[in-house]
Amino acid sequence: MKRRRFLQLSAVGGTIATIGLSPTPSRANSTTTETNFELTIAPANAEMIDGTMVYTLQYFHGFDNPSPEMRVREGKQITVTVTNNDSQPHGFIIRGVAGSYIHTMQPGQTGTTTFTAPNGGTYLYLDHYKGQLNRLMGLHGAFIVEPEGDGKTPAGSETPYSVADHNPQLQALFDAFGNHPRFPGDRWRAGDLRREKLWIFSQVDPTLNERVAAGELVDPASIPDNFLPRYFTINGLSGFDTANHHLEDGNAAHDGRAGRIMPSGKQGEPCLLRCINAGLATHACHIHGNHCFELARSDYKFRTEISSNIYEHDTWELLPLQRAELLLPFERPPDIPLDRWPPVEEPFPLRYVMHCHFELSQTAGGGNYPQGAVTHWQMTDPL
Amino acid sequence: MFDWEDTAFGEEITYSTFGCDVFKADPQTPDRLEPDVHIYREGAEKLDRIAPDGRRIRFWTFRDTDPAAPNQRVTHPAPEIRVTQGQIVHTHLTTSTGPHTIHHHGIEPTTANDGVGHVSFEVGDGYTYQWQPARAGSFFYHCHRNTALHFELGMWGPLIVEAPDQGDGKKRLYEDGPTYDSEMTWVAHAVDPRWHLIQDHDAGLCGLDVGLNRYEPKYFMLSGVWGNRAHYDPTTLIKAQVGERVLIRLLNASYTILRVKFTCPIEIVAADGHSWGRETWCPTTRRVPANTVLELVTAQRYDIIVEPTKTGHFPVFMQFRHWITNKVHDNGKGQLKAKVRVT
């Protein structure tokens, strides 16, 4: 069995950028919003879960932060500056965000745009030049907008959405946490990374990456019929790497890249799941342990639609380029016998997987189940 | 002290225990209660079936090994599990060919009873899963070992949680929920014959490329019935009378994007085993006009009420589409027709 030797992603022909095992793990869990982002496009070799090295393209923020998460506050003036250090032209756009477009940049060129941050939600930025090609090569990431005033309901519950977008159903749900017999515990908390996770799904077909690495000008229209992904990633990671194992204390669960993926908390600490599909394959996100509330989903014009009839799902569809936001309630897993809650002989944390149910996505290199698009969440304590 | 040897509760989780060398154990059921109902399943049992084109296809399945009803025949799909909300259920799994698990999909018990090896354990010889369904609705169960393969080869069956009797003689999907007179479980699934030639339970687990990222189904089935028979086979044909309320439990168990078009109006009253129209955040069910296309990705379920207002034949068209190209599988042949016949 091949095993990846160490987690790294290196800029081709130069600086080595280590990711995954961040030298200074962020222990602060409160979110930070910014207004000015300077990105650089560069090739980078990424190591897949089975040790295979794959040529990718990345937006770097600084020299060691590929595919950065950009987080802003609703209504702020945002400036994005992108420098293209690759040998091919590239662009930049945030789907669904007016004014975010940067025209194609030739190698060595810099482009910039300034726009007003839209209403609260999860968005996908990507390189639109040559259709889906560069997005599949790795040029994509999350653009997250926090609502003004923490999106509070009239009853004072924080939400991830701007008040102008609220409906009574959304408010009823967020007001129910901590106030409803089914949801004892805490409300959802804005601005706390322990209460929101990011899952950007994507897929890698190394033959496509090899062709780009060799300098071939790939016709994007030819991609879908020939795309045979061998690696399936969440935030660039697969399988074992998508969760923090061997936790000594509760806080470490949220550290690093795996901590951005793996929800962890006590019963009654609801967690927002920001789901994005940056790839070409449709995903069927399936979660164990709790059903999730589907709050919002983007439509075919990339607009966010907040649901006026909030369904509880254990499986939800995620089309290519689609975003969906769900709330994982962290409620007592409902089918544990009532007389055995909390369990005594079985230890906490209770761990439950989330995986795509198109099980092809659970493979790596044609086998290696379950080293694909899977993670898990954990309930560390009962109330 | 409870013995968690050789499980994720008692050992270190490593890259190796994640997939290649996953935990295998037969612990006692933790926090055990006296059950109200016993379910017995043994797997993997093998069953060869002849496709409409004469090809022999080998399926894997679970057999019902209830000692009170011995010598039950092997079926594909695996036999339904049917219990009542609130019962303490013990699902007894025994394995006949290497490790397996049962994951009760949509049921949410403790980790040890959830059937996922890399966060708990896979079952070496036998284990009793304990759960107490809190909600009535439509679920399913399947093996969660090397799932890509074991699920596709047939190690799954429907799981129905019935609502408690409310004393008025009416059947309901869930407590105080919609009533129905008869019910049908429609599970769409598919077969890639290349996969069914793989007889190694652990194919690919330790790094070998066995092509489990590639899926090219050639046979399209409904609840175990070959697609060409689905519109008249008694297993899948819905026979109803005007004014009768039929509950359809619809599941996509294929690795395809399933499109379903009813040619009569329907009402969706639940999804994934959770009711619609009963909570302030989900106030309504969904009435769907005839000829609307529903889309279900793998493992999604809808509970649907059909209440015919006129006699006739109402076909239900299902298309199996590729997860990347969105084209209908098998060069457009990935389709089947089911039917609601109203007299």
TrEMBL record, chain A:
In terms of superkingdom, the source organism counts as Bacteria
Location of the Plastocyanin-like domain: 66-148
Q: Which residue positions does the secretion signal occupy?
A: none
What SUPFAM superfamilies does the database record attribute to this sequence?
Cupredoxins (SSF49503)
Instruction: Cite the GO molecular-function annotations of the record.
Output: copper ion binding; oxidoreductase activity
Task: Please identify the protein, giving its name as recorded.
Answer: Multicopper oxidase domain-containing protein
TrEMBL record, chain B:
Q: Which InterPro entries match?
A: Cupredoxin
Superkingdom of the organism of origin? Bacteria
Query: Which SUPFAM superfamilies does this entry report, sorted A to Z?
Result: Cupredoxins
What is the name of this protein?
Answer: Copper oxidase
Organism expressing this protein natively: Qipengyuania vulgaris
Q: Output the lineage of the source organism.
A: Bacteria, Pseudomonadati, Pseudomonadota, Alphaproteobacteria, Sphingomonadales
